[in-house]
Amino acid sequence: MSTARTDSERVELANTALYEAMERGDTAAMERLWLKDPGTDVSCVHPGWPVLRGRSEVLRSYALIMASTDYIQFFLTDVEVSVAGDTALVTCTENILSGGPAETEGELGPLVGQLVVATNVFRRSGDEWKVWSHHGSPVLAGREDEEDDDSAEPTA
Of 44, 38, 7, 37, which is closest to residue 22 (Cα–Cα)? Predict the structure, then answer.
C-alpha cells in the first residue's frame, strides 16, 4: 500500500496550511507558503479590498491583518480541488469566527462570524505547492435552494 499523496491531496494540505498560518498569526509560515518566482507576480483580493499585486504587498497585507486581529478561526467547507499540470485551483467557503479588541486586559473581545467564498490558485514550485493568488468575496445572500426551502414551509 502506497503512502504517497496525490497532487490534489498535497494542494489541499497547502490550502489548509494557508489558513492555519493566519490563525496562528505566523508571518514566517505565510512567507513560505506564497510563490516566490521572479517571473510571476502573486495577487490577492481580501474581501472589500482592491487587488494587491506583488509578493511584498500581499505579505504586508497579511501581516497587517494578523497584527490587528486578536483571534481568528477558519472552518473551511465546500472545498473543491482541481489540478491541471503545475497549476491547481481550490474553491471553498471560509466560515470565519474572529474577535475584536478586548475591553478588559486579558479578555477576548466580541466574536463576529462571517462567510467568505474564496478561490486560491496554487503553482507547483519544485516539489511543493505555493499560493499564487487568493481572492475572497463576502457572502451577502443565501443560496437559491435555501430560499426555496423557506417557501416550502406550510402556512397557517
Answer: 44
Given a cut of 90, is residue 38 above it in pLDDT? no
What is the per-residue pLDDT across 6-17, written as a single tens digit (0 to 9) for each?
A: 999 999 999 999
Rounded Cα distance, 47 and 94, in Å: 11
Assess contact for 16 and 10: CB atoms under 8 A.
Answer: no
pLDDT score recorded for residue 146 = 55
Q: What is the dihedral of CA 62, 65, 71, 73, to 10 degrees?
A: -50
pLDDT band of residue 154 (cuts 50, 70, 90) is very low
Within a domain: 13: yes
Using alpha carbons, list the distances in angstroms from residue 112 to 40, 70, 101: 36, 12, 12
**Position 115, amino acid:** L
Q: Which domain holds residue 26?
A: 7-140
